[in-house]
Amino acid sequence: MVSGYTEHSHRHISIVSKRAGDILQKLGYPERTVELAKIAGYLHDIGNCVNRTDHAHSGAIMAYNILKDMGMSVNERTEIMMAIGNHDENTGTAVSDISAALILADKSDVHRDRVTNTNLSTFDIHDRVNYAVTDAELIIDNETKKAILNLKIDTKLCPVLDYFEIFMARTMMSKYAAKYLKIWFELVINGTKLL
Fold first, then answer.
1. Around 48, how many Cα atoms within 13 Å sit in the side-chain half-sphere?
2. How many other C-beta atoms are found inside a 10 Å radius of the C-beta of residue 146?
3. 40, 98 in Cβ contact below 8 A?
4. Which 3 state secondary structure label does DSSP give 28?
5. How many domains is the chain partitioned into structurally?
6. Please, which residues have CB within 8 angstroms of residue 167's CB and are 6 or more apart in sequence?
7. For residue 170, which of 133, 121, 122 has the smallest C-alpha distance?
8. Range of the domain at 177
9. 95 by DSSP, 3-state: which?
């Protein structure tokens, strides 16, 4: 599925699913909670098949019904629904450990591989910023209680300030999601700690 400025297909959902699970696993959560975070990550953008606008809400309802049809317990499918329904920075916030992990995983997937526009001469700011990111690593350090988003940005393609122009809301959402998990969020760009 391709929607808007960046891809939301198998590549993205696979990364988000794995990262959401890894976050909770590294923080010592039970295996089933880790699995639910992975499921939420895998299904989180399903609402894009309806519309990009309010995709979190339509996706939450779709995921709930799919999981119900598959026989998942009401408590577990409700947890996943809440996480999916709250992952968008325009309307959501961390409301559970699973939702917090999903937010951190989703917002950390910024990378040139997500740019769907192949014509560099027609890039807008979203294309430029995503394309300029050559490496994005989310590090969870349980010992220091930190979630560190370590980005490498090619500043010949876009200045670091452009990153903040389009990602400030996502960065703040990540900060609050980390706080929900009782860890600290740090943003490191090209070796410099910015948050």
1. 19
2. 14
3. yes
4. coil
5. 1
6. 107, 110, 129
7. 133
8. 2-193
9. coil
* Residue 153 Cα to chain centre, angstroms: 18
Specify the pLDDT at position 126: 85
Q: What DSSP string runs through 151-180?
A: EEE-TTTS-HHHHHHHHHHHHHHHHHHHHH
- Which two three-digit tokens encode residue 39? 């499921």
Task: State pLDDT tens for residues 166-195.
Answer: 899 999 999 999 999 999 999 999 999 997
Task: Provide the pLDDT for residue 7.
Answer: 54
Whether the Cβ atoms of residue 63 and residue 84 lie closer than 8 Å to each other: yes
* CATH, residue 149: 1.10.3210
Q: Which two tokens stand for residue 22?
A: 């890894």
Q: What confidence tier does 6 reach under pLDDT thresholds 50, 70, 90?
A: low
Tokens 């950390």, residue located: 108
- b/e per residue 28-67 (b: at least 16 CB within 10 A): ebeeebbebbbbbbbbbbbbbeeeeeebbbbbbebbbeeb
Give Cβ neighbours of residue 186 (< 8 Å, ≥ 6 apart).
Answer: 146, 147, 148, 149, 193, 195
Distance, in Å, from the CA atom of 64 to the CA atom of 78, rounded to the nearest integer, reads 7
